[in-house]
Predict the structure.
Amino acid sequence: MADRVVDASALAAVTFLETRASAMAASLRGQNLFAPVLLRFEMAHVCIKKIRERPNERDLILSQYASSLQMPIQLVPVDYVGVVGMAERSKLSAYDASYLWLALRLRIELVTGDDELTRAYAAAAL
């Protein structure tokens, strides 16, 4: 079993059965998962956005969101000053930079569905 950092885009894909859910689930299955504390807030935001887009599916969306809260993900505090520096260097948002910072800090793979974050991770991991 390997350790991986999971970001909100990957977890949202799995949680809300988005088009890339299968690929993301395969990357996460059987892994020890880590994320910045921010993950839970980002997932709540995704849930709210989906409810606003599809209010008639509110109960389903809330159920999916509640299921995501049961996933065993170790939430880890980040060095906020380090995240700012990472965001500056990588041209990412502070949110995305927090996942990148954590993956680099823990020296483990980052699972994301975000192309920009994927590129930044590939560049930083070299």
